[in-house]
Amino acid sequence: MTQTPTHTEVRVVDRHLAPRVAGWLEGDPTRDGVLAHQHLLDALDSGEEERVLVWPADEPRAVAFLASTGTLIVSGDAAGGPPLAAHLHGSGWRVLLGDAALGRALLEAGSRGVLRRRGRAREQRLMGTREPVDLPPPVGLRRARPADEEAVTELAARLHVEDRMGPPLSRPARASVGDRLRDSIARGATWVVPRDGEIVAKVDVALASPLRGAQLAGVYVAEAWRGQGIAASAIAAVTRELMAEGMPGVTLHVRADNGPGRRAYARAGYADIAEWLLALR
């Protein structure tokens, strides 16, 4: 009789195990291993292996990375959900993102408190490209400047509601988003499209690894300016810039039911890589 795996089979990665885990992720036979596992691989590259869990300990089939921000990235076999959930109990993760089957299994094995919040879990699609598309950039596309911070924060607040992340941001939450975007702008990681003296679209670069590629996030076009190809052309242009800087590929994730968004990203050269789940606590 097959035994049910327990949390004792979960292991925290150390520097000796890290190369084997990285090799397993890179060699994923079902998809582009590097682009599908960017955040996990970048964590191992960056020396954050103590934040990475594997199951089972002797032959990894599922991996979880708990970032300092409270984001939990998961990948691998859904059978790893129960043991990982047991090990992560009380960890305080706030956002779960990654392979849909493993994410669902982890939630189902978690506490009743988590299950009561499952209405905030939704299907995503991880999309990516290694071949930039030569779409003309939208007029005025540029990196954001410090003076753009309030306008960019407003777009991020709208995206939070429209993307079903929760109710309108409270004042403290909006201030926290503003702090994050201030840092992103200072690093040159936020791009904007101005029209008629206003910022009407934004794109953030959430990850930029010369080894593992970049990931875009926070893509938003103001409602009055939609349907003009701004998203597709901006994504294509930022992707070209990132790949010219040496990124081997670029990814993003989008709600599975966001048809216009998925079509825009496809026009920018992106294709589906994996079914993901996004859950909030």
What features would you describe in this structure?
This protein starts with 10 loop residues before the first strand and ends with a strand. The chain is an alpha+beta fold and 281 residues long. Helix 4 (81-88) crosses helix 5 (100-109) and helix 9 packs across helix 10. The protein folds into two domains: 7-120, Aminopeptidase (3-Layer(aba) Sandwich); 142-274, 3-Layer(aba) Sandwich (Aminopeptidase). It has ten helices and twelve strands. The chain is globular and about 60 Å long. Helices cover 35% and strands 27% of the residues. The protein has a twelve-stranded mixed β-sheet with strand order 1-2-3-4-5-12-6-11-10-9-8-7, with helices on both faces. The protein has helices spanning 18-26, 33-36, 38-45, 81-88, 100-109, 112-115, 149-162, 171-186, 230-244, 259-267, and strands spanning 11-12, 52-55, 62-66, 71-76, 95-99, 122-129, 142-143, 190-195, 198-209, 213-221, 250-255, 271-280. GO terms for molecular function: acyltransferase activity, transferring groups other than amino-acyl groups. It comes from Egibacter rhizosphaerae. This is GNAT family N-acetyltransferase. Residues 139-281 form the N-acetyltransferase domain.
